[in-house]
Amino acid sequence: MTGALREAAVVAGVISTVLFVVSQLPMLVKAARTRDLSSYSVGNLVVANAGNVVHTLYVVSLPVGPIWLLHGFYLGTTALMLCWWVLYRESPHEASKPEAEAVPAYQSAAHSP
Questions:
Q1: 12/62 Cα distance (integer angstroms)
Q2: Is residue 4 part of a domain?
Q3: Which of 10, 32, 78, 96 is the most buried (most CB within 10 A)?
């Protein structure tokens, strides 16, 4: 690859990495703020994490560059989303529902017909 072509490829890699990171930030902020990951598939999160681990073997064989940053970010965000899914799997709607108020036995017996 010529020098100019290599430079253009690195610039394209930097730009795509920045765009990908920026595109993922709203998802991460919303998940962190709401703790609502009910719309995420645990199967997808598990497979994405497994794929990232395997893909790491390929990425580390490449020269250090934007792909390392992009893969590191993706590896970290998918692992974080899986951890959050496990920690916050009860949806915030279920967690915020008031439990049925317990009526003491003496009150329920006094009001029975």
A1: 16
A2: no
A3: 78
